[in-house]
Amino acid sequence: MREIHVDEITAAVEKLCVEANGKLPEDVKVALNEAVEKEISPLGREILSDIVKNYRIAEEKDLAICQDTGFAVFFVELGQDVRITGGDFNEAINEGVRRGYKKGYLRKSIVDDPLIHRKNTGDNTPAIIHLEMVPGDKIRITFAPKGGGSENMSALRMLKPSDGAEGIKKFVIETVRQAGPNPCPPIIVGVGIGGTMEVAALIAKKALLRPIGQHHPMPEIAKLEEELLEQVNKLGIGPQGFGGRTTALAVNIETFPAHIASLPVAVNIQCHAARHREIEL
Predict the structure, then answer these.
(1) Are 27 and 252 spatial neighbours (Cβ–Cβ below 8 Å)?
(2) pLDDT tens digits for range 235-248
(3) Is the dihedral of CA 80, 255, 158, 234 positive or negative?
(4) pTM of the predicted model, to two decimals?
């Protein structure tokens, strides 16, 4: 049994918060630069160039890529042979968020009550923690700050199995069309198919972490990803909603076994600042 002290977890989370908000993953940077070359709209190309300039300045000056530094969302793979010592695991992550958002001068966006008082917690906690027990003696922590503009455009629908692939396509395209410029395109579209209502939503968000250009291992689903990306980019929404062919950089689909009577489908949209970073302890 390997022991990991909560202080090590807090330090790792603090680092993740600062780095993820200031540096885009390489696959996203490559996709944005390629989009500049492919975009046929002069205004769309200019906007994409500004987006590229923005992420480069953020890297050079250690600044946040976007003023909305998001809800602190974590995907944690906890090895079953790990024992957490020195305190509470969830509190260790929240303390890392407090320190990271203070150290990085990152905007605190979380209110303590969603409906009545809506008072800012002042430290961007509590974090959202998705915990999965896995074999081994390590902890893998993936941090994905999620901005409100893109999260607000997400949707879930309980389709019938008879709706099939065409029903899924219709729902995804309808969701992106209605989102329009609000999620700050070019976007990444995460789609979760199967499971129950909450599982579909969870795997849709998890789909956003997959590197751009890496497709689902099942050929039929990979083809659906390609078809949806093509249709989304034909909508003409374009960069920041000003028109063009680059509405999305990728459509990533994740699936999960479903009940014979169900076909849950969730769409989780990510903005062009598709920030995420991981660390292994």
Answers:
(1) no
(2) 999 999 999 999 99
(3) positive
(4) 0.95
